[in-house]
Amino acid sequence: MRFISAKGEYAILAMLALSLHPGEKPLQVKSIAEKKSIPPRFLEQVMSALKKKGLVESVRGPYGGYRLTRSPNKIYFGEVIQAVEGPISAKDLSSARNGSVEQIVLKEVYAEINDGLEAHLNSISLEALCLRTKEKEEKDVLMFHI
After folding, report:
1. Which end of the chain is more exposed for a tag (fewer CB within 10 A), N or C?
2. Quick check: helix, strand or coil at residue 103?
3. 137 CB contacts (<8 Å, ≥6 apart)?
């Protein structure tokens, strides 16, 4: 079951790039696109959605770009996904017909899944993703030299 589109994945990758970017200097879309292999025009749309939701701010000028509006430990995976995808849902509940007991039970189970999924995604901060990324990079460097 896939509930995150390419747009959602690109949003997470862009936010991760901004989180890992040192200092206060903004990061340009072109730079993020190159680092994360994201089509720049598509990334502009993603960044616009993130800006509308208040997760990033844009800085104008020749050295402008985007930066986070909050620290990475206060931005969560779930809110990034919701900013570009809308509500998190493992299954569209409107498609289940009201009527049979089985369909009512399925609707309840889908609701439980959605609640659990949303809670889990909203428990993962960008800071946690940064730590995981750094750990993997360090491990890969060590493995490369063996």
Report:
1. C
2. helix
3. none
Q: Count the helices and strands in the chain (H runs, E runs).
A: 6, 2
Residues forming beta bridges with residue 7, ordered by sequence position = none
Q: 20: Cβ–Cβ under 8 A, 6 or more apart, which residues? A: 130, 133
DSSP letter for each residue of 43-93 = HHHHHHHHHHTTSEEEE-STT-EEEESS-GGG-BHHHHHHHHH-S--SS-G
Q: Six-digit token pair at 118?
A: 């949303």
Q: Does residue 98 register a pLDDT over 90?
A: no
pLDDT value, residue 4 = 83
pLDDT of residue 12 exceeding 60:
yes
Domain ranges of the chain: 6-144
| pTM, rounded to two decimals | 0.83
Task: Identify the CATH number of the domain defined by range 6-144.
Answer: 1.10.10.10
